[in-house]
């Protein structure tokens, strides 16, 4: 692959500049007021695909944000790779914690990224990662090295639950037919320890509203006589965990897969420095389910977190109000074989049952997603393993990821295609946080690795 | 008092218009961006005092919002009444729950106010009530019926804890020397059941900040391994009450005065319709300390309420964040003989002790205030009782109020003067809530009652 190497060296600065331009577009899918920017980002993505030689490039409208498609069919006998990614990003708040504006990318050196890292919302999740595929495709096209057919499907609603992707897949089954889905939206253990994600947690995301009195009251006149919905909500949330930090929702653990001692042992052999982990987070102690290690808690155990809470007076100073309502966003990460639809129902029933008569409770569900396990003995896994080994000089470790990419289970079901989760980020890249960044090393290493995947996948499939 | 009556009838429409003008000024003391409006309100108040004949009118600057002073000395041998009130108002949020804009007063009829009520922030608390004194003073001046010396002290920081009033009182002891402090900032039981407030709860208002990790994290990558400050805060808040809804802060009840069975029995004879009370609040059940009635829970028992809570993502849609910080404003209503300074310390110590090692906690105190009991056998109480009886045709009931006017205890201490709490609002007037209002009946009845007080107070003092 010498030709690719020299093409890469000659063009890498441009590869970076092009990514920086994409990072300047605030394609925040959760906030309706950014819809024009999301649209602009879809157009920029389509334009890039066209420029590097994809055919049939089209921006497909959905009920939400559009999906960008493009393809290159080189040989009807060659296997087909469907590249999935997303061009939308998380909201950047809290803004005041960013060291530089989230949509004005800068490259800065850090301890973990001595070659420099790109700081911007979306740098790692997922603009930097999906764009590696566009650039790897450009290299293969230019050097006539494309050994597989390629289809790109880059969506704009991953951060809000990929609401319209399933319908698009169902409606376009034939167009999207493929042998494997290739996704870069996960991380490696560290830059010296490549890894492939072989499991993802599922997600169940709920919103709750607790109503006490029908209006805000004076806490002096009514305090002590009327249930305060904030106090009640706190009590309800507190009761969602027991003293062992197990989740108390009835039936919650019924379908949780039991992981063998052998598998747990292997998992815990991954490099992990608890002191360094706590130091980087600034915490004096970790907190999690009793009887499990941190790697297990984030990999094979389900969890429940409040992602947001609000109610009453939250301005400056003091207001003696007994509020009418309190709200929380509560999400659960699920593991095989938990079903997010079933967990939604269990949670809603449990939460409604928890509520004292003195309040009313409304529970609604945001998006959810099924947990995923990737088999490590498949052709696609072996191709990815060899590709990373070639690029990093080291065989990647199989790793369970704590996050969720709900669409992986959907691809399996709707397109009958298995996914390869070959991401290049680091857990410390602050995705979903202020100062999100993505290492230049990682960006370039991804662009280098992807063509190897095509090469090995085509040759393994032929056998 | 016939002359006053006819002067009142001839001028009552103007009395209303003048109040409406004052209600148009958004004198929100808690929010620094309204400082110019607060200033404008102080000037308007001073101007009104001047216009009706007060001398020595002056706007005294403080480290916060200014205090308006004015006086009329009619006879060195007559007793002196110090009228206290406040021209600042609570923030109006949540704005979307107001039926009409909070600073554009409208008069509308309601079930409880068939003659009409003025809807605006501050209508009852306290612009409508302090301004009754200005108008009653005008009537007495015009008709040459002022039987006491009068001093007005109208401040602009009651809703933010009267931070600078004590210093002003200490610095101006002589200027403010008086026989009694007359305050209208409380309520009567209903328009058919006049009452005088003989007890007020104290206040201790705290703000807490819980910090988990040093930045917002992705709840998929870190969820289950790192303490979530929102979950922890909820747990801590939940634990502040036990199953009997008693407050668990160590030592909290140590100084609570035991109220005799006889007093409790008398208190519970006040008109109170629990069904109606629940209906008006839209709740299916009340919640409060076991073993006490609603009247007792809001009158003689201390309470703890969360006034505001916030943390994590509170925008539209779903964000899978494990937040770095969570916050709450928590206030306690205190009863005799609890000391707010002591309770602040007990709360802070308790809250800090509650925190697991996995988080950091910061506890700060906003303003506080001492609880108050007014003796019913004093000259000033008897004068107020007779004045109300004269105006309402019915002897007022002594009543313990749930709210706090922290400065009453301070007047006692610094000015060596007892206060009379002769307010004319209703508990249902939605002070501190959207759609605050004040009955025209109540506004006019107050203006009618106040001159009787002066008359009876002067004559009882002479004896």
Summarize this entry quickly:
Two copies of one chain form a homodimer. Chain A starts with a helix and ends with a helix.
Task: Name its key features.
homodimer; 463 residues; Aminopeptidase; 2 domains; 6-stranded mixed beta sheet; 4-stranded antiparallel beta sheet; 13 helices
Structural write-up:
The structure is a homodimer of 463-residue chains. Chain A is an alpha+beta fold and 463 residues long. Chain A folds into two domains: 2-200 and 371-462, Zn peptidases (Aminopeptidase), CATH 3.40.630.10; 202-263 and 297-369, Alpha-Beta Plaits (2-Layer Sandwich), CATH 3.30.70.360. Helix content of chain A is 34%, strand content 22%. Chain A has 13 helices and 18 strands. Chain A has helices at residues 2-23, 35-51, 127-142, 165-171, 219-222, 229-238, 261-267, 274-281, 294-299, 340-354, 379-392, 407-415, 440-462, and strands at 55-60, 67-72, 80-86, 106-108, 117-119, 149-155, 180-183, 195-200, 202-211, 217-218, 303-312, 321-322, 325-334, 360-369, 372-373, 397-401, 418-421, 437-439. In chain A, strands 1-2-6-3-7-17 form a six-stranded mixed β-sheet, with helices on both faces. In chain A, a hairpin with an 8-residue loop joins strand 4 and strand 5 (117-119). In chain A, helix 3 packs across helix 13, helix 4 (165-171) packs parallel to helix 12 and helix 11 packs across helix 13. The longest helix of chain A is centred in the last third of the chain and has 23 residues, at 440-462. The radius of gyration of chain A is 23 Å and the shape is globular. The relative contact order of chain A is 0.19. The mean pLDDT of chain A is 95.
